[in-house]
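Ticket #4471: structure export looks truncated?
Reporter: QA, pipeline team
Priority: medium

Steps to reproduce: submit the single chain below to the structure queue and open the exported record.
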Amino acid sequence: SPAASRADGLAPLAQTAHADERESLEQVRQTTLNLIEALVDQGVLTRAKADALIAQARDKAAATVAAAKAAAPQDDGKTQRVVYVPQAVRDQIRAEIKEEVVTQARAERWGVPNTLPEWIDRIKVDGDVRLRYASDRLGKGNPDPVDYVAGGIIGLTRAADLSRFNSSLAPTGNTRDGVDNWRVRARLGITAQVTDTVTAGLRLATGSQTNRVSTNQTLGQNFNKYQFSVDRAFVKLQPVEWFSVSGGRIPNPWFSTDLVWDEDLNFEGLALSAKWPAARDAGFVPFATLGSFPLREDGHTANGRWLHGAQVGFQWDAAPRSRFKLGLAQYVYTNIAGRRDNDYELNVGPGATYGQYAYSDGLRQRGNTLFRTNAQAQLDSGDDGYYTSTNWGLASKFRPLAITAAAEFSQFDPFRVLVSAEYVRNMAYDRKEIARRTGWAVDDGSREGWLLKTTVGSPEVRERGDWQASIAYRYLGSDAVLDAFTDSDFGLGGTNNKGYILGLTYGLERNTTLGVRWLSADSIDSPTFFPGDKFSVDTLQVDLNVRF
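Actual output as written to the record:
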């Protein structure tokens, strides 16, 4: 019949269309399998995950075929049916499968070009390398080293490092000759955001392990390798936005300047910080910090040396382009002051605790009033301690009260003006108490210090052409703060100095800066305890610093 003839004529066409459909689907199948195998070969996808994807695709395909068979009319055995999938439907299926695979890849961080594992986003690596040329020009009117040696023999000094001498009793200190040197500093830090509330940090740095306030390495050690030490190692817990606890070897937790704490100093211990309110757009934000840090742990809590501190303050955005910050801090050192050490017996020598009141040379810088703590029995014996075993102790106790303020003005965009100031007073400095405890009458020395600094320029020197200029004047009395932890550059470090600092930093390239500083310092009170003695030094520093 005509219908049968037309059916017979269409049958080859239907078979051809069916074959083309099967070939197209087979190409899609092979392409998908090849893509998955390529991901496995490149290490982007594991074999187990690839097998799971293939199995998942087969299951979906089987389910689709089963559904199609269930929906199709029942075959009467006489009718031949050819399943035809239009091109638009095939394109839609292909797009849906691709989108499903890509979505899963994004969620599981595999198979997406230029995408790293999720845990890498929680790790931050930073660091810097600084090359410095430093030139120290000591005043020609500075006291002769013999004056420092004589002061040390008497039993008082403010520069114990300059009172040393060799076996021939010749002074070994330098008070008048200029010194030029090159130094390098390298730091590498890692910060891990373990969870939303837990952070861990680690930083390595060059520098001497006996110098707490400098990470510089002086060149000229016969090409010897540098020490690379743990500069920071801490854990920070922040259960809520406005409160955090940091423990270990942590960054400086105080709002301060380098009048009290050197900028390279890190603290060992525990610090708690809070700020209110938690609202991010708050214009007035009070804050508070508590900290407790062991300085020397000797197995006996009563004799251990500690630093405790508390600070309160606020930050106030007085106007859209004006910001003020003020902090009041009280620091307390325990068991830091020296006293006469009597753990010494004639014909026996020093006892197990002898030297416990010493202010060690590996800790101190210069400026604090020091006295000899050697036992009187040792001084009266042949081992007089003048030449062989001098122990220096701090004459004053230390309980510094510090007020720190800063004002930032951004009305001159793109430039910024920052004015900072700090005043510190050692509330424990008492000459009568010093005389009772040490047996020495000290009629000079100062308990006060202050700093005023103005910085103009870019908010931060990061890009080429950015710049900052600064001028500062500082006055830091001999016993205003512990000289061990204050700035290590001005006046060659420590206290009992006054003068000014000029600075300029310019951006050569992105994260590459050239800085120049001029520091001019003069002593306030006699460093040798001979009336009229003064010590002065001018320092030029040229820094090339690269951050990453």
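Status: closed, not a bug. The export was complete when the record was re-opened. Leaving a note from the reviewer for reference: The radius of gyration is 37 Å.
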